[in-house]
């Protein structure tokens, strides 16, 4: 086989693998195990494009940070089931926060209800600053967190969480962050009480932990969102904290404007700073 034929063969093989992965994601997104309400949010969360941007492959070891009710778990679990590993770093059963305990219980109930889909998910604990072992050190290809940074800022634990994510990743592994994006013209709130976070704040937390910014994407951008609302990000769907007050207005805006950032754990850094 000459070099040209070999090159064409390899390129065709890689294209076929990539096409199969995309088809697999499409099948999962349309699967009946996802409710119609969850599917309706795809227009705002762009899960396929987001996971492709984070370069998540079905054979990888992935940590999903604070998965909540499992919106992304519904996609990641079947995608990684055959070849990969999914860690769901959730709340602690011993948490003093009732919401955390209730959320964890519902998540575990969800996993138990469909073992064919979720039976391989490994539930770990992220309860900063005490419990930070989200996965074995240096064992993970991807760590993904969706709209969580503001919670850690409010609790004053963002530094510890970013260090834990750095520790879990293998050198060359990627951290994917999606977060509500603050208007850059507004003052920085160290506690992110509105739920919106400045992009540079997230980058600073990541760099402090030892990460390097690899790329940005506007996949989850929403130009209709001013990021300045009476009840913060929770003014918008799906929360609609104002109830019927200006409901139509906020529904037309849709879900929040979000940054989508991709960081790498450099090969020459083994521990968070």
Distance between the termini: 50 Å
Reported by name, the CATH topology of the largest domain is Rossmann fold
- Highest CATH level, the class of the largest domain: Alpha Beta
Largest sheet, in brief, is: 7 strands, mixed
Give the strand tally.
7
Mind explaining what this structure looks like?
With 273 residues, this protein is of the alpha/beta class. It has 2 domains: 31-221 and 257-264, Vaccinia Virus protein VP39 (Rossmann fold, 3-Layer(aba) Sandwich); 223-254, no CATH class. The chain contains 11 helices and 7 strands. It has helices spanning 3-29, 36-40, 42-45, 47-53, 73-80, 98-113, 115-118, 149-155, 158-168, 199-209, 247-253; strands at residues 61-65, 85-90, 122-125, 140-146, 169-180, 212-217, 258-264. The chain has a 7-stranded mixed β-sheet. α1 crosses α5 (73-80) and α9 crosses α10.
